[in-house]
Amino acid sequence: MMNNTLRNQCKIAPGTLITGKWNGNQYRMVKELGYGANGIVYLVEHMHRQYALKLSDNGTSIISEMNILKSFSKVQGSALGPSFLEADDYTAGGSTFPFYVMEYIKGESLVDFLRKKGEAWIGVLMLQLLGSLADLHSHGWVFGDLKPDNLIVTLPEYKIRCVDVGGTTLIGRSVKEYTEFFDRGYWGLGSRKADPQYDLFALAMIIVNSAYPARFSKNGEGYKQISDKIHAASTLDPYQKLLENALRGAYQSAADMQTELAGIISDKKTARQTVSKAGTSAKSPQTRQSRHAQTHQKTTRKGSFAETFVVVAVISLLYVFYIYEQLL
Q1: Which of 20, 35, 267, 268 would staple 40 via disulfide (CB 3.0–4.6 Å)?
Q2: CATH code 1.10.510.10 region(s) in the chain
């Protein structure tokens, strides 16, 4: 939901300097990046570097998100949320609004990346994401609102990162934010209590979503409906067992699911290499003859080009001599 009240109270035009009330740091607003019920995120510049600045009229929400970002910074090697820079207040129109500044993660949305690069990338990217989730879970947090909209693939590193940590919840508490398609409660396949399996269910649905970009609504059959969709999509064939295990909450941890996914990706790579080698060794004599003919044609063309070049050079030289004699 868009925060219309905040937007009406605090209209910030590109080029505006947002000055912190307490720290005094200035951020020049470049453009709006996104908005939601808890605030508006802007792309800003400070000391010739770009950052993301989230402005809100909800101090409690801001403090909660800042604590989450700070927790992420303690997770060694975590690539989930953006790094935290600072927090302050911004005064405009007689009102004061809390804000915090974080790393600006530049890249393509997961949906756009897969559209350009192909669905074959989904396994590799989810393997990365499972590693980050394993670290997050070990520190007592569940991401919660895990969905393609919150995921960005950085370029040229091809690393998957999250840009919205608003749904991150301490394990054991009720998930704060969720999106129906990726929520096990919506499908009747579990509660909304924050546990590692909640995130793994959502990750499985992200893979399903890669085969059904328009998504689909529930028809009351829950697991059976999703399972039928998985079996109906050929691109999901390698992941059938993995997805069904995640839907049922069969994995004890993200590391367990990551290990199985790594095996699937390795098997797919081996299969491709086997097919490639078989195709090379099965070349028929006709194919080899065809290649020989192509090579001969290329050699002939090169020879013809060289002969033509020599003829043109000789004619040009004779023409120059002719002109020279006429001038004498």
Answers
A1: 35
A2: 107-279
Q: Tell me, what DSSP letter sits at residue 238?
A: G
3-state secondary structure of 213: coil
- Domain covering 107-279 in this structure, CATH number: 1.10.510.10
Per the structure block, which two tokens stand in for 191?
A: 């509660």
Q: Where in the chain is the domain with CATH 3.30.200.20?
A: 4-103
237 is catalytic: no
* Dist CA 270 CA 279 (whole Å): 14
Tokens of 175: 């998930």
Q: Which of 57, 88, 135, 145 is catalytic?
A: 145
Reduce the DSSP state of residue 254 to 3 states and report it.
Answer: helix
Residues 6+ apart with CB under 8 A from 186: 178, 180, 218
Q: How far apart are CA 18 and CA 26, in angstroms?
A: 6
Torsion of CA 301, 306, 308, 312, to 10 degrees: 160
For 106, half-sphere exposure in the C-beta direction (CA atoms, 13 angstrom radius) is 7
Q: Which residues contact 225 (CB under 8 A, 6 or more apart)?
A: 187, 216, 218, 219
CATH assignment of 4-103? 3.30.200.20
Tens digits of per-residue pLDDT, 229-256?
999 999 999 999 999 999 999 999 999 9
What pLDDT score does 71 carry? 77
Going from the first residue of the chain to its last (328 residues), give the mean pLDDT of each consecutive group of 10, the final group possibly shorter: 64 94 98 84 97 92 87 66 93 92 94 94 96 92 94 93 88 94 98 98 98 96 98 97 98 98 91 67 46 48 44 37 36
* Alpha carbon separation from 278 to 264, 283, 285 (Å, rounded): 21, 9, 15
pLDDT at 72: 75
- Rounded to 10°, the helix 254-281/196-211 angle is 30
